[in-house]
Amino acid sequence: MSGLIYGLCALTALLCAWLLLWSGLCFAGLTLNNLILIADKLIFPEVDLSVWRLMLALISMMVLLYGLIWNAE
Questions:
Q1: Segments forming the whole domain that contains residue 58
Q2: Mean pLDDT of 5-28
Q3: Per-residue pLDDT averaged across 28-40, rounded?
Q4: Which of 28, 55, 57, 62 is the most buried (most CB within 10 A)?
Q5: What is the DSSP string of the chain?
Q6: In contact, 36 and 56? CB cutoff 8 Å
Q7: Rounded to an integer, what distance in angstroms lies between the CA atom of residue 61 and that of residue 44?
Q8: Cβ neighbours, 10 Å, residue 39
Q9: Predicted confidence band at 58 (pLDDT cuts at 50, 70, 90)?
Q10: Would you call 44 helix, strand, or coil by DSSP?
Q11: What's the average model confidence in pLDDT over 43-64?
Q12: Are 40 and 48 in contact (CB under 8 A)?
């Protein structure tokens, strides 16, 4: 009986990981976006990295949007 419970827990964890995959990828990209913001404003203030930040944010949001649409079908 415990094997069945462990198996169901593993399947539930796998399903949650699959559903949260797109959100996780999006937030990983947004984390990189914030790190580039720190580099842009504090480390390299003379270099404009805003285009790179905006591109990364756009790609991150597109990944999340793709995941939401793809999972809805």
A1: 19-72
A2: 78
A3: 87
A4: 57
A5: -HHHHHHHHHHHHHHHHHHHHHHHHHHHHHHHHHHHHHIIIII-TTS--HHHHHHHHHHHHHHHHHHHHHHH-
A6: yes
A7: 26
A8: 15
A9: very high
A10: coil
A11: 93
A12: yes
